[in-house]
Write a structure and sequence with these properties.
Strand content: 15-25%
Structural class: alpha/beta
Strand order of the largest sheet: 3-2-1-4-5-7-6
CATH superfamily: Vaccinia Virus protein VP39
CATH topology: Rossmann fold
Order of helices and strands: HHEHEHEEHEHEE
Shape: globular
Mean pLDDT: 93
Low-confidence stretches: none
Number of helices: 6
Helix content: 25-40%
Radius of gyration: 16 Å
CATH class: Alpha Beta
Largest sheet: 7 strands, mixed
Length: 200
Amino acid sequence: MVGGLVCFDAIEKHALDRNIPVMQKEGIEFLIDTFQQHQCKSCLEIGSAIGYSSMMMVSNIDSFVVETIEIDEARYQEAQKNIKDYQLEDKIFIHLDDALEFDCNNRVFKSYDCLFIDAAKAQYQKFFEKYIPFLKEDGICIVDNLDFHGMIYDIDNIKNRNTKQLVKKIKRFKDWIFDHDAYSVEYYPIGDGICVIKRR
């Protein structure tokens, strides 16, 4: 337990030992707290990894369900095993697919109280535009990893060309969503930078 939360420390450690990205503790606590404040009961998550964040959500928010999409087959298989081991199959529904190519007719739920984007950072805007129509009118979207280890503020000094291109794409999304007339955005310097997006 951390701050009263049900935790999956063994899963988190096993992921970190293998450099599999899982959301930082303070980020997951913020996520859970925000969803509770907004009385969210259903979430669409883009990027399951090994199921850690969705397991944390459904285990710490009453009557909460997650539908999640993962592109990597090995991580998908591991997530399925973790979900089964903790008997959470009735709360987490996972798809193996590229979220950009996923057939939205195959969704388990019609609409969602919240959308959580934590997948390929270069595709944030495409993920957002594809899945925001399934968010309820008063729903919220949370996007993680918007600072990319602080590099977003120091792009000119990034030596690696691929990293520089990625960080530019993250900054482009951040600028685009903050300037968008249809959405209000709040930024929080938690973990690697989180923003909460709502329709105006």
